[in-house]
Design goal:
mainly alpha; 9 helices; rod-shaped
Length: 214
Amino acid sequence: MTSWSEVTLLVAAGLLLLLWLVWVSANRLDRLHRKVATSRSALENQLVRRASAAAELASSGLLDPVSSVLVGEAAWAALSAGGYGRAELVAALPDLDRMLGPDGPGARADDPVERDLGESELSRTVREALADDDEVAALVAQPGGAELVEALAAAWYRVQLARRFHNEAVAQAQRVRHKVVVRALRLAGHAPLPQTVEIDDDWPEALRRVAQAA
């Protein structure tokens, strides 16, 4: 027969095991939340670099006037949506400010643009502007053109890598958050469920070739 002391010992061991499992799950979840936050910050930085590179290309005078305006507007909208206001952009890119005028994107701080929509629109606009291989070749051949195109290609590639890494971190966190123990004991507290970043980050084939040649 099992004595009361043995039963008590087994119950205590079970409780200790349960507490250990809860502690491990809580620590893992905390690490994953930190990983998501870090990867999101890295992605935000890369998105800003890409939009800045696109803005520099738009204000360089190397694109045709229509493409310059469209790419400049899209880049400005993406930067504004990311929390970078008009004052900072004007200081960094005065030519872009003169080109877009006082009512351009970013002129009103109380009119934010959804980040994912702004970034997707920037991708589509640049793809259209750099869709013609002959025009891109002519752009690269101009003084300073190769550097601008290479900078945009490098920034675009880093955005794709950063988004992939972030979404993988989010998927890991979501899997842990959906576990029974985590949900039953509310180990996540009031932290919102991490979400993947779903934007259009397909780049122009011309930029792909530039990146591969680099």
